[in-house]
Amino acid sequence: METTRYKIIIQYDGTNFSGFQIQPHDRTVQGDIEKALKIMTKGIEIKIQGSGRTDSGVHALGQVIHFDYPIQMPIANMKRALNSLTTDEIEVCDVEIVSEDFHARYLTTGKKYQYRVDTNKDTNPFKRLYTKHHQYPINMEALQQALKDIEGTHDFTSFCASNSGRENKVRTVYEASVVQDAANGELIFTFRGNGFLYNMVRIFIGTLLQIANGRRPADDMKRLLEVKDRNQAGPTAAPQGLYLVEVYYDLEEATKGTAFYTPETKKMGVN
Amino acid sequence: METTRYKIIIQYDGTNFSGFQIQPHDRTVQGDIEKALKIMTKGIEIKIQGSGRTDSGVHALGQVIHFDYPIQMPIANMKRALNSLTTDEIEVCDVEIVSEDFHARYLTTGKKYQYRVDTNKDTNPFKRLYTKHHQYPINMEALQQALKDIEGTHDFTSFCASNSGRENKVRTVYEASVVQDAANGELIFTFRGNGFLYNMVRIFIGTLLQIANGRRPADDMKRLLEVKDRNQAGPTAAPQGLYLVEVYYDLEEATKGTAFYTPETKKMGVN
């Protein structure tokens, strides 16, 4: 059957979902979107493909999915239909018709995550689902050094949930940075890389906050990358501070503004 | 029995509560706090008194309550105990020991409410519980005129839920204003007054947005105040945009920065 491939960028509030990926008994983002598509096609089951999973409670500002639709529907209609058949927890931001060669997962050249830490003394009821609360003193200098140590190509075994089955734990982190949002009393961490292991960003944060507190030396990241032992790294930080911000399909976009960007990067193609 | 009166300022995310006031079968803010107090006193039932109710889904940044506690506990301990025995949806911000003369409801000299309207074209999953989405053109000049017409002492019958049993519908609105938060694509409305009728702010917003759209003339507020008919005003806007921001117990504080403030105001005392 002739089908049309759609690439779609979505945002979601992960609070009430058991993550992105479809589950037999729990509500998931993929499950809700596939249900909407089934209504639109009057019963045809369409499987969507995401750029990757997000865990329960993790949010997305720019998750990318693709699927093959039985007819060619104008992109504005596709956007409107999906938005009206899903709850306000999911927002379809952008719809594009792409060639059959496009694949939301296999063709990624990188991803960007952010993690919000609320450093105000008191907890804020309006941030409880959207930040991690951490009211301890922050040594910014130690934090910056530790972030620098994360950047580059390393074996990130120490920062991968130990129940993960993946073999190759080598990834390249293009950017690991933090900014202080003084108005909101928050630290906003940004991580850009060619790929991320299971729970990698959340274990980075759990470890970085211990370094920022002085509970670990500022150069502990270097040691942790060496020892390749999950048990020596910090805890897995709570999911609600984590946002999948952007998924890249072009290496120039993925590395732009980082030390890993060169005018030749684009020609390297997908890695 | 000798008791100590506590005045407490709380914030809450109203999303998962059936309003402030205790209900036999539903979860409420008052119910959660009274449960925490019962645990603290090992079984003594303490009734709390709020400055007023808030409806289901309405938020508070500065709700005030008082209650009488059987022993005099240091304020820091009271704050810590209540925060640890309630969920993160409620935050006790400030605790004060007050005289037996203080009353959270009867002694108010005014309240401040805000209402957030998200005017971005697309809905935002992260604002769905905290703003009203309204993607239509806004005539700021008409809006400003209508807000000016609200200020002052009027019979607000047209802006009171018709099932309300209150007799006297005359209130003084000290401030009715709006600012544009361009960075977030929001309109933030502020209302300060000596008291508010049931659903008054939400009916203001439902009517004001029709004026801003050009669906009502800019001077329609004047007419609505005259006709004293709830059916001629606009709809009751959704609860999730509404915040109880501050409760005043001093007339100078309540009117500060408005045309209703005079150096003599304070001497007028409670009205």
Automatic annotation (TrEMBL), chains A, B:
One of its GO terms (molecular function) is tRNA pseudouridine(38-40) synthase activity. The active site is at residue 55. The keyword Magnesium does not apply. Residues 9-106, 146-250 form the Pseudouridine synthase I TruA alpha/beta domain. It comes from the Bacteria. InterPro entries: PsdUridine_synth_cat_dom_sf (IPR020103), PsdUridine_synth_TruA (IPR001406), PsdUridine_synth_TruA_a/b_dom (IPR020097), PsdUridine_synth_TruA_C (IPR020095), TruA/RsuA/RluB/E/F_N (IPR020094). Homodimer. This is tRNA pseudouridine synthase A. It comes from Carnobacterium antarcticum.
